[in-house]
Amino acid sequence: MLSGTLSLISNPLPSPHWILGPFTFDVGILSIFGDLDAKYKEELKKNYFIMDKGYNSFPTNIPGTTYNKALTERSPGKRDLLAYLMNFKDENGNHLTENQIADNIIGVLFAAQDTTASVLTWILKYLHDYPKLLESVKAEQMAIYESNERGNRPLTWAQTRSVRLTHKVILESLRMASIISFTFREAVADVEYKGYLIPRGWKVMPLFRNIHHNPEFFEDPHKFDPSRFENS
Ligand code: HEM
C-alpha cells in the first residue's frame, strides 16, 4: 500500500486521502463491530460516507436496515465496542438507549476515521519528500514483515512498540501537520493564569498548531526532523 500510494502523490489525482479514508474506516469498523459480515460492512460504509458528507442521521435503527441487522445479529460474548455499549449498565441498572449507542458509534467512527486518514496522508507526503528517510522506514517495516514469515504471522503489540524510526516519523508528522489545530475547554470556576482572569463559563482554546510551531518548544520548527523525538 505504501509504494502504491506514494506513486499517487506525484500524480495530482486521485488524492491519497480518498484511498486512506476507506482503509481507516475498515479499521474503525473492526474495532467497533468486530469481524462483521462483508455485506453489512459495505452497507455501513455507504451509509457512513453519506452521513460524513451531509451529517445525516446514520445509523437509523429501523428493522430491516443494515445497522439494525448489525445490532441484532450480534452474539453477546463478543469483546468489541458495540458489545461493550450494548452490555453497559449505569448505577441504576439502566442500559443505553439505541440512540445513545448510535451516537457513541458515530462519535468514535468520526473521531477515528478522518484523523487517521489525514495523518497517514501527511506521513506519505513527508516520506515522499525525504527519500532516504523513506528507505529507512521501509527497511524497518520490511524487517518485521520478513520476521513474520512475510506477513503470514500477525503483527504483535510488542512489534508495534519496537519500530522506533516509524514512531518518530509519526510524531514529527503529527507535529508538523497539526491535523487537529485546536480544542477548547470551559472554565468551571474562575481561574487566574499568568495574571489573567479567566471567568467561570468562559471558553479557552489551546491552539495546538501554535504550540507545535513555537521555536521555544521545537527548535527550527518548520523543519521536518523526526530525530527531535529521539528521547520520546
Ligand atoms: C492521529 C489521529 C488522531 C488525532 C490527531 C486525534 C486527536 C484528538 C483530539 C485533539 C481530541 C480532543 C481532545 C480534547 O479536547 O480533549 C480527540 C478526542 C477523541 N478522539 Fe481522537 N485523535 C486521533 C485518532 C483517534 C482514534 C483512532 C480514535 C478511536 C479509535 C479516536 C477517538 C477519540 C474520541 C472518542 C475522542 C473524545 C474523547 C473524549 O471526549 O473524552 N481518536 N482526538
TrEMBL record:
<dbReference type="GO" id="GO:0020037">
    <property type="term" value="F:heme binding"/>
</dbReference>
<dbReference type="InterPro" id="IPR002403">
    <property type="entry name" value="Cyt_P450_E_grp-IV"/>
</dbReference>
<dbReference type="GO" id="GO:0005506">
    <property type="term" value="F:iron ion binding"/>
</dbReference>
<dbReference type="InterPro" id="IPR036396">
    <property type="entry name" value="Cyt_P450_sf"/>
</dbReference>
<keyword id="KW-0479">Metal-binding</keyword>
<dbReference type="GO" id="GO:0010295">
    <property type="term" value="F:(+)-abscisic acid 8'-hydroxylase activity"/>
</dbReference>
<keyword id="KW-0408">Iron</keyword>
<dbReference type="InterPro" id="IPR001128">
    <property type="entry name" value="Cyt_P450"/>
</dbReference>
<dbReference type="Pfam" id="PF00067">
    <property type="entry name" value="p450"/>
</dbReference>
<protein>
    <submittedName>
        <fullName>Cytochrome P450</fullName>
    </submittedName>
</protein>
<dbReference type="GO" id="GO:0016125">
    <property type="term" value="P:sterol metabolic process"/>
</dbReference>
